[in-house]
Amino acid sequence: MNSFALPPFLAGLFTPLVELARTGGPVVVLLGMISVVTLALALAKLVQFHAAGVGRYAHARQVLQLWINGERELARDRMSGTRSVLSDILANLMRGAGSGRGTEAQLREDIERVCLNKLAHLRSFLRPLDMIAQTAPLIGLFGTVIGMIEAFRAMQGSGANVDPSVLAGGIWVALLTTAVGLAVAIPTSVFVGWCDGRIEREQQAMEDLVTAFFTGKPTEAAHAGVVDLASHGRRHAH
Q1: How far lies 187's CA from each of 30, 44, 83, 126, 133, in Å?
Q2: What gap in Å lies between CA 14 and CA 173, rounded to an integer?
Q3: What is the mean pLDDT of residues 49-71?
Q4: Disulfide: which of 27, 157, 220, 222 matches 61 by Cβ 3.0-4.6 Å?
């Protein structure tokens, strides 16, 4: 029976990783598993942002301008079929204002609840990623401390016959765990910071849209972007 063999490109990818795990020991293996979890969470976060339409502002702002200009039926038509965080917020506002039920204060309170729920959804997965970014260097440092203890204990057992090369080898293997911990933590921390920035921009866009809806004074971006949409609607009306 033939033994299973990995394709050459997979063997070239996994061989260094296996050697790294064998050299670094259990701490490096643990950090490797943490890195796999980190990658899965990061991919899930990117998929979530894409599905939620994070960063897609133009269409919602254009529809808002139509609503403010009094073209409410056209605004409702343009809103259907769109998918983004701002579009969902604006759709809730338009439904609340069009139903005629409740006061403006009640509508503001309801839309604040919707916005908070949206932001909480966008922040999901960030807490475990932040924990990984903070704990991975500590795990690596823990492995280094254990390795240094082992290296110096071996040196003590050798007495006067200490081999500097053996000692140096034990020290660099111990330091390897800290390097791996930093290699996991640094990109994770950068990714969390990038996600936080996207969520903060999304929150600012929500606040601008809600304020413009109630005051009737849209942002310059909305005013500039609505021209083509409104003229497009009028052409179809003719």
Answers
A1: 17, 16, 30, 14, 8
A2: 20
A3: 87
A4: 222
- Residue 57 backbone dihedrals phi, psi, to 5 degrees: -110, -30
The answer to whether residues 221 and 57 touch, using CB atoms and an 8 Å cutoff, is: yes
202, two tokens: 């999304």
Contact yes or no for 121/52 (Cβ under 8 A)? yes
* Maximum mean pLDDT: which of 142-151, 190-199, 205-214: 190-199
Give the torsion sign (CA, 63, 67, 72, 76): positive
236 Cβ contact list (under 8 Å, min separation 6): none
Which segments of the chain does DSSP mark as H helices, in order? 8-24, 26-52, 58-68, 72-79, 85-99, 104-122, 126-158, 164-215, 220-237
Alpha carbon distance 85, 206 (integer Å): 8
71 contacts: CB under 8 Å, gap ≥ 6: 230, 233
pLDDT mean over 184-191: 96
pTM for this predicted structure: 0.77
Residues 6+ apart with CB under 8 A from 232: none
Question: pLDDT tens, 123-156?
Answer: 999 999 999 999 999 999 988 888 888 777 777 6
